[in-house]
Amino acid sequence: MTELLIDRPIGTWVPVCSYAELIPERGVCVLVSGRQIAIFRDFGGRLYAVGNLDPFSGAHVLSRGIVGTRGSEPTVASPMHKQVFSLVTGVCLDDPAVSVPTYPVRVREGRVEVSA
Amino acid sequence: MRVVVAGYGPSAHRLIETLVTRGFDGEIVVVGEEPRPAYDRVHLTSYLTEGADLGYPVPPGVTTLLGARVTGIDRDGKAVVTDDGRREPYDVLVLATGSAPFVPPVPGAERAFVYRTIEDLEAIRKAAESARHGVVVGGGLLGLEAADALRGLGLSTAIVEIAPWLMPRQVDEGGGAVLKGHIEALGLGVHTGVMLERVEDGRVVLKDGGEIPAEVVVFSAGIRPRDELARAAGLEVGERGGIVVDAGMRTSDPSIYAIGECALAGGMVYGLVGPCNTQAEVAADRIMGGESSFGGADMSTKLKLLGVEVAQFGAMGGALDVTYMDPVGGVYKRLFISDDAQTLLGGICVGDATPYTNLKGFVGKPLPAAPADLLFTGSGVQLDLPDDAQVCSCNNVCAGEIREAIAVQGLTDVGGIKSCTRAGTTCGSCVPMLKQLLVKSGVEVSKALCEHFDQSRAELFDIVRVRGITTFSQLIAEHGRGRGCDICKPAVASILASLHNQHVLDGELAALQDTNDHFLANIQKNGTYSVVPRIPGGEITPDKLIVIGEVARDFGLYTKITGGQRIDLFGARVEQLPQIWKRLVDAGFESGHAYGKALRTVKSCVGSTWCRYGVQDSVGLAIALELRYRGLRSPHKLKAAVSGCARECAEARSKDFGIIATEQGWNLYVCGNGGFKPRHADLLVSDVPTDELIKIIDRFLMFYIRTADRLQRTAAWLESLEGGLDYLRQVVVEDSLGICADLEAQMERHVATYFDEWRAVLEDPDKLRRFTSFVNAPGVPDPSIVFETERDQIKPVLVPLEVVRK
Ligand code: SRM
Ligand SMILES: Cc1cc2nc3c(=O)[nH]c(=O)nc-3n(C[C@H](O)[C@H](O)[C@H](O)COP(=O)(O)OP(=O)(O)OC[C@H]3O[C@@H](n4cnc5c(N)ncnc54)[C@H](O)[C@@H]3O)c2cc1C
Ligand code: SF4
Ligand code: FES
């Protein structure tokens, strides 16, 4: 367990969970190098990874928000006060001056990997 | 050209914003004494109550010097100097220094606070932490607002006003008396017609010898224009203060303007944002070579203070007047009319501001109907505002402009009007008028649930019911677009749950649930959750009580008795929820659905079993009803109560359905609630026996679930139901639509298929797996969750947070 908390060089891919474990249109949270990252699987099966910290409430909860779309943009709404963020860019669509970090994410042999 | 602005409040903001949007090509420098750019002072109190972010964005290209005070004007050298030693040359100087609260020169005044800036509020908040009593000196608009804020900080609060009644500038004696009734009913002390003698440690002393305990004293006894810079620079100032300006907002020095609350325009200092904004726009226009002028402004006000509507428009007197007064309902309305009884001059409203909304635009114009009809709401008088009637006084927008914007831009909602015309964007009191104008312009106010569905919730309910749809994917593919959002997904989840009563985490349903339903617990501000086991009717055995205590102790949870006669355990991390619920379920507890838009509690009083006055077994009925309707998901939460006699100890009339025992049976009251807008429930049927009662409640609930809007409680639903209570009675008692059997059958299905959601989670490893903080580190607790101790229990330590903006 603790090995996941050790710092690793930026840019390496870290396996975090199995793809099949992810429920379509819901998120999970993973801990990588001490960072909380929210990973979402959309209806079409694509993956997105953004910071788990909700910048409006200060709580680490974005992985628990409702996934949906605004126009053609895939989104997640903060479960705390419902600000909506783009899963692609991390920008808050209700207040574009605010954004959350995004992270590269991919599937390798059925495992989800993020780079942070 | 170099424009320097002294003072950075709302007026300065409106000035620079107007200059920038109109393409001013010179340099703009703003010097402000406060440590932050201008912010919305009108909503200052919401900073305390909601932590609202009030800041206005700094327009691009403007240089701001914050935390810097202008200390002198060198008129010959055309420069201002600041306390941090700068010298800022100007071609045009604008004084926007606003005003300062007046502090009466009484002994001990230095102990008191004022209520004007964010720093003032911070100081008051801090002082209130160790205080129990507060006094506000001054019973005007701002004084009452400050009193509400102190009350909100938990202080027992009194108001001291020198005039014989409250809000003397907006209401007359009759209105003041009604207002006083409202304020006192809220538990605030009101002392009028009395002067303050001195402020002492822990109390204030009045001239009449009275004393009021107060560790926190706030002065709100009027404002004084900050004209000290102008005075020192030899600019003309008024006898009672204020920098004298002409209609172009220019002072006696042609290269210096003054705007906002520091300016004396046409012999008046205006203390409302509306006129201040207009002045700022006039000055901006003049600076850019324009010709516009400020010709005075409407001082009408409408506000909602402590839940009471108070409004004043036009003149406060006239040859004739018509008054409507209802001391019981707390309503006072008075219209002033010219001596020929033809022209409306003004009006005063307390407790009901509809005349303001309907009639403000008619000031100075012929009366649109008989005065008595105008004062009775619901008299059906239809008014069409003249085009030149001012609708939004904050932003000086007339009815005609709004109608034109609606027609030309094809606007369909208030949001559209706000962004096109600016009306409604400041104090918000004109928003009801904007809605009326929309409706009158023949706009179908959209009932679409959100961008994904054009239908209303009730329409979607029918589609799902009639077509037998069981998944969100099918519904959105066939009747909507996109993949949904935080509005339509929970609404559809609720519809599917009301109709099919599956587990909320089954299959695709899991993706529709808001976080509370998804974790079957209520999210708290630090990302932890609370646990509320059901305690039907509030009745609990000592053994069960002990189990709750043991669980709370073993998991270190904050424990509190709720307002719903049960116990809430706070501070659980997601991975702890199943362990906690395992213990509770083993001891015979079930989910209390505190997290769901569902039946919450059926409160009870002790009733005839123990109470010497009770005429029926209220506890027995409450438990039976709570067990019958538990797990029932609905457009909004449902609360109920049963009282054993007319003394009404269970507060049944503040519930969605409330039952009060009679000698002959039960009286059923429906559509009440507490909360944001309290409403007493209305009597639907009286003296009915228990089986009849339950039938009617079944029908009532199902009819509500079928037809209400998303997040519309029964009270608001009844108010929007055409035909109101009578219609409701026809449908659910007299069966006028012939649907009662269907409604009852639907409820029977719900009752028959009920199961405990939490037990089902514990029995299903697939659902249990979701309760982890980190899927790649299931044993690691979320390190961002930290607690401290307060009164021997835990309390969240919040991460200090500045929203990062680029
Ligand atoms: C725990 C409790 C306060 C307490 O410690 O007493 C409470 C706590 C919350 N209330 Fe309440 N309300 C509680 C009794 C009440 C009552 C009193 C009552 O039920 O008798 C009222 C007024 C009566 C009413 O509802 O008509 C009440 C009116 C509200 C409202 C305003 C509803 C309205 O129609 O205006 C909200 C906001 C909402 O639901 O949208 C609210 C919302 C909330 C939420 C869910 C806010 C939130 O989303 O975080 C709070 C979280 C509860 C939690 O985390 O467990 N709570 N709330 C009470 C739980 C009762 C229970 O056992 O289930
Ligand atoms: C609690 C509260 C509620 C209110 N509610 C309403 C309402 O509902 N409706 C309504 O119409 N109005 C309301 N008002 C009044 C409204 O806020 C004022 O009309 C408005 O703020 C006036 O703006 P201003 O920019 O002219 O002055 P101010 O807001 O006073 O701004 C002047 C600024 O200049 C700064 N300053 C002064 N001298 C100097 C100097 N020498 N150098 C540098 N900086 C200086 C001050 O620090 C201040 O920041 C309310 C006011 C308060 C306090
Ligand atoms: S409502 Fe009546 S029966 Fe119930 S506790 Fe109060 S007095 Fe007793
Ligand atoms: S009147 Fe204040 S926003 Fe319109």
Structure notes:
The complex is a heterodimer of chains A (116) and B (806). Chain A has strands spanning 13-18, 26-32, 35-41, 47-51, 66-70, 73-77, 84-86, 105-108, 111-115. Chain A has a single domain, classed as Rieske Iron-sulfur Protein (3-layer Sandwich), CATH 2.102.10.10. Chain A starts with 12 loop residues before the first strand and ends with a strand. A 3-stranded antiparallel β-sheet of chain A has the order 1-9-8, with no helix packed on it. Helix content of chain A is 0%, strand content 41%. In chain B, 31% of the residues lie in helices and 21% in strands. Chain B is built from 25 helices and 38 strands. In chain B, the strands form 11 sheets. A 5-stranded parallel β-sheet of chain B has the order 3-2-1-7-19, with no helix packed on it. Chain B has a 5-stranded parallel β-sheet with strand order 9-16-10-11-12, with helices on one face. Chain B has a 5-stranded antiparallel β-sheet with strand order 21-22-25-24-23. In chain B, helix 1 (10-21) runs parallel beside helix 7. Chain B starts with a strand and ends in a 10-residue tail after the last strand. The model of chain B has no long low-confidence stretch (mean pLDDT 91). The chains are: A mainly beta (116), B alpha/beta (806). Chain A binds chain B through residues 1, 4-5, 16-17, 21, 23-26, 28-32, 36, 42-43, 53, 55-61, 64-72, 74-75, 77, 79-80, 82, 84, 97-99, and chain B through 451-452, 473, 482-486, 489-490, 508, 510-515, 518-519, 523, 525-527, 769-770, 772-777, 779-780, 782, 784, 798-801, 803-806. Iron/sulfur cluster is lined by residues 605-607, 611, 613-614, 618, 643-645, 647-649 of chain B.
Tally of individual domains of chain A: 1
End-to-end separation of chain B in angstroms reads: 29 Å
Q: What is the number of beta strands of chain B? A: 38
Pick out the low-confidence regions of chain A. Answer: 1-8
CATH third-tier fold name of the domain at 2-100 and 225-287 in chain B? FAD/NAD(P)-binding domain
Biggest sheet, spatial arrangement of strands of chain B: 3-2-1-7-19
Please report the first level of CATH classification, the CATH class of chain A.
Answer: Mainly Beta
Spatial strand arrangement across the major sheet of chain A: 1-9-8
